[in-house]
Amino acid sequence: MLRIGLLPLTVLATPAIAQGPSREMSTDRPDKTESPYTVDAGRFQIEMDFATFTFDDDANFRVETVTIAPVNFKAGIGRDTDLQLIFDSYVRETATDRTTGARETIDGFGDVTLRLKHNLWGNDGGATALALMPFVKLPTNSGGIGNDAVEFGIIVPLAIGVSDRVGIGLMTEVDFLREADGDGLAPSFINSATIAFGLTERLGLYTELFTERSAEDGARWVVTGDAGLTYAITDDLQVDGGVNLGITDAADDFNVFLGISRRF
Predict the structure, then answer these.
(1) What is the DSSP letter of 238?
(2) What is the C-alpha to C-alpha distance for residues 251 and 207, in angstroms, rounded to an integer?
(3) Structural domain of residue 154, as residue ranges?
(4) Helix%, strand%, coil% for the chain, nearest 5
(5) 83-141: per-residue pLDDT in tens?
(6) Is residue 196 part of a domain?
(7) By CB atoms within 10 Å of each CB, which of 47, 164, 246, 257 scores lowest?
């Protein structure tokens, strides 16, 4: 999420003028559209879900996934650059065969992703802000969680200020992911758009459209419609919650989450 006016909200929002030595807190959650703003040099930020629940039911399988405490730990390492360490503390996935009723459960620690975000402009104010964020995913999972592949890509988030209470965020992303048959990597193209509203001085609302399509043969469009709320308890502490609903058959049916962000 970005920021709206003087609100320390983390959806997508109007870039604000820096006040003193610290900028307003901006997070990459709870929406899927990343923020172009970075953590101040020398400061740290933790963004995490308390828990998430994902459900998907198709013609063959019903899959339920619970993720406990997925974390994004950020460190400001330059005036316009931060380093991010992302991992899933615990994942439990249960798949039920709709034909036979057989159930299989896997669980364990997830993969680790390293990201470097560099803001190109707008970190300290202006009508727009843009950043580049390359990343690499390392196969650190246990218990069969993950595909045991090194994957990488680049994210380009853009924030557009509409007013003190309304902001738009756009993101394009290219990931290079292992193909389903394990034979090399295929590019996957992600695009998303978020609109954020400052309902009060501390309460925010966002709605989002997210799309993903792999170049792999036979891949289908993944499209979700997302919405959620953020509440800034202080300038350095925010809670949020939301739901992501599948629009196409290839997308998960729904995902719900509750999370928190804290700056130090």
Answers:
(1) E
(2) 17
(3) 44-263
(4) 0, 60, 40
(5) 999 999 999 999 999 888 899 999 999 999 999 999 999 999 899 999 999 999 999 99
(6) yes
(7) 164
